[in-house]
Amino acid sequence: MPKIPDEVVKRVIDRAKIEDVVGDFVDLRKAGVNLTGLCPFHDDRTDGNFIVRPSSIPEARHGNTYRCFVCDHKGGPVQFLMEHERLSFPDAIRWLGKKYNEPVDDIPLNYTPPPPRPKPAPLPVLEIPRPYVGRTMQIAGEQTIIFIEWLRQLPWDEEQLARLQQTLWMYCIGGWRDGRVVFWQIDHNGIPRAAKLMKYLPDGHRDKEAHPGWIYNQDGCRQQLDPEHHEIIKPLFGSHLMNRYPKAVINIVESEKTAIIMANYYDDFDSQIWLACGGLKFLQLDSLQPLIDQERTIWLWPDKDGRDAWQEVCDKLGYDHCRVYTHFFDTCWTPADGDKADIADIAIRMMTTGEGPRQSGQSRGQAPEAKPSEPVPMTTQPKPDDVTDEEWANHLAIMKAIGDYDIIHPGDEPFMPEDEMADPRLRWMRETLRHIKTNHKLYGNQKK
Ligand SMILES: [Zn+2]
Predict the structure, then answer these.
(1) 399 alpha carbon – ligand 1 mean position (Å)
(2) What angle, 0 to 180 degrees and rounded to 10, lies between the N-to-C axes of helices 427-438 and 158-170?
(3) Cα 206 vs. chain centroid, distance in angstroms?
(4) CA distances (Å), 414 to each of 10, 138, 349, in order?
(5) Can you list the residues of the chain whose pLDDT is less than 50?
(6) pTM for the complete prediction?
(7) Do 63 and 54 form a contact (C-beta atoms < 8 A)?
(8) Cβ(169)–Cβ(429) under 8 Å?
(9) How far apart, in Å, are the Cα atoms of 350 and each of 251, 334, 353?
(10) How far does residue 133's CA lie from ligand 1's centre (Å)?
């Protein structure tokens, strides 16, 4: 077989653009100066591992190449065709000649385009075993978690301080061995889906140097949870409270910290619950959908610099029971709060200066009425015959306080070692735990 002349090869290669060639086989999107897509050489689920540096970037800076950071496939247009379409070098040149209308030789191209690739079956959604939640809560009781320490020293009044531990428990706040706080993202059906590990500084600000970690990426969890082979969904922080308080207005803020502070500030779960989306850009339709499905009343409480962005999201939703609530910026914000202030920053300042706390229901502006929905069956469950009235009342009170028993109960593992029980901060948890243990039969039928 005669060799294709070098000058012809060079001419064809000079014409070939990697973005065109890869783009014939992979859906690419712009990512800065590069393009990204799912890597065609490995079972890729994460856009961003496979990058294409377009031909507009100089060759010295690796322009006109592709590269996968996972499976390490890399090269230019010719290598891509040889590896991906299994063409010989001369056929890759002929393929490019045809694409760019550059005559190569008289030998026909030996190439059959592959049939369209079948769409991969959807991955199962990651479900984190509930004992993980209990273990992180146990660590939060055993170790110093800076975030929790900071929360405790806020200028709460006596009642607020007394209920803080319970508020933390309702949100299933956990700790990690390195002192990070664990914010669980448990969906409205009580299934833990994700958990964010955040590092806080003693002043209550996030450590900006440390990026948030996710529990499924932590050593020791990654292998067991196998995030590579699951779809990961991230419900709003606090979603597990939704079904527990079916008549409550759903208040959504940016940060988990703000949700906890506001929940403890108002302590009015029957009428107000506080959820967090995790940041300005994470207020998205798919995480709001369960709320809309339940026809819940939603109030959005943006940070001061996020008002327009959240109003835009709200407008796009086109959902009648959603409002952006910014009235408090007009009535309570002062320049000292700063342009990034949110409702909790203002609440803390008001607590410090003795202006507050206001009671819930005041200065709420023109917000819609909460729409009542069906009560949860659990609270209307009849009292079993072998349970005393007192036990039953206690049971209902606890169910109301802690949300879903299943969520926080760590299965067969001891929830907390006995020697930790001496810590007075844990008394409320300890008593509740003892109650759960002694009434295990009573709770057993709650399990799904
Ligand atoms: Zn790859």
Answers:
(1) 48
(2) 50
(3) 17
(4) 70, 10, 40
(5) 356-380, 398-448
(6) 0.59
(7) yes
(8) yes
(9) 20, 11, 5
(10) 34
